[in-house]
């Protein structure tokens, strides 16, 4: 049935509808079994595509005192992406309404101001009972929810361990880098 649907509708349409082919479903760790729209082009961005990578998840905002962390996040991503690190940005207007722009405005700001090339999802809610389901799961696993913009979650390659780092943790923080290195090995 799935293969027939894939032929009729294409895989992107199926993923956006939440239908995951059986083979992919068996290979995707449950923690990564979520799909979001990409900030840059609105196309479906299944987190399953990052299975086997170390993932740094960050809720972002363009008008925050921590916004300059985009620079460090991009440098970290550029330096370690070939070793298996992916940074994923989750723009959110949840804290101080510091991400009021449209998705196009956010994407342009990130690209033009900080040269951001790491993947980012469309604007979403990351706190409270209305948080997106991925963030709810990260909170459940770590018992640590974002208290402000640029909170970080670090996920190991198997997506079985998640560590939480506060907004005060910069992308070049020695403890964060030590854990990233451990997870990359």
UniProtKB/TrEMBL annotation:
Gene3D superfamilies: Glutaredoxin. GO terms for molecular function: peroxidase activity. It comes from the Bacteria. InterPro entries: Glutathione_peroxidase, GPX_AS, Thioredoxin-like_sf. It holds the Pfam family GSHPx. PROSITE patterns: GLUTATHIONE_PEROXID_1 (PS00460), GLUTATHIONE_PEROXID_3 (PS51355). The active site is at residue 64. Keywords: Oxidoreductase, Peroxidase, Signal. Residues 1-25 form the signal peptide. The keyword Nucleotide-binding does not apply. GO terms for biological process: cellular response to oxidative stress. Belongs to the glutathione peroxidase family. PANTHER family: GLUTATHIONE PEROXIDASE. This is Glutathione peroxidase. It comes from Dechloromonas denitrificans.
